Amino acid sequence: MNWSQLPLGTLQTNCYVLSNSEKECIIFDPGAEGDRLMEWLHANELSPLAVLLTHAHFDHIGAVEDVRNAFHIPVYLHVEEKDWLMNPSLNGSEFFHMGRVSAAPADRILTNEEEIQIGNFQFKLFHTPGHSPGSISYYYERGQAVFSGDVLFRGSIGRTDLPRGSRDQLIESIHRHLLSLPEETIVLPGHGPATSIIEEMESNPFLNGF
What we know:
By secondary structure, the chain is of the alpha/beta class. It has one domain: Metallo-beta-lactamase, Chain A (4-Layer Sandwich), CATH 3.60.15.10. Helices cover 20% and strands 30% of the residues. It has a 6-stranded mixed beta sheet, with helices on one face. The chain has a 6-stranded mixed beta sheet with strand order 7-8-9-10-13-14. A two-stranded antiparallel sheet has the order 11-12. Helix 1 (34-43) crosses helix 2. The longest helix is centred in the last third of the chain and has 12 residues, at 167-178. The model has no long low-confidence stretch (mean pLDDT 95).
């Protein structure tokens, strides 16, 4: 597995690019700076196959249209947030005074915890609400990694004070889906450095003693 982390935008939201030996790639959460992201993709001679969104908060979707229009690829999003891309009041950009963010609807609406195949990339989907109602964690078993969005961070968890957030639901999501993964699984969060399941099991103060 070859993944790259690109912190983008004012909030330094992690966009991840997962690529294979054929130079095909999947883009996770293109949050901002579309020109910079596309320049990086072209410089690395990568051919994107799809955009996978962990959720639709504004700092994770700001460059969706740039990437979708440039490469003519589908955008995947959970049904619970199917209206958020188009609506600045739902995706939060209206309230954070960083400019209104909107995009066209997602091309693929995800409704179940399932497996999806895109090219030769295969992911197990875990619906992990709590930070937002449609948060999805994408488990890439072949690469022993999970793209967790704003659900789980190194030494922390996602904020739950935003609309339709729930701390209890978030903790349940983490324990049910993420901490049940193999201990060596790499956690690739929406902000900050990568971590691992075993590291968070042993040292995350928000999870210990639950």
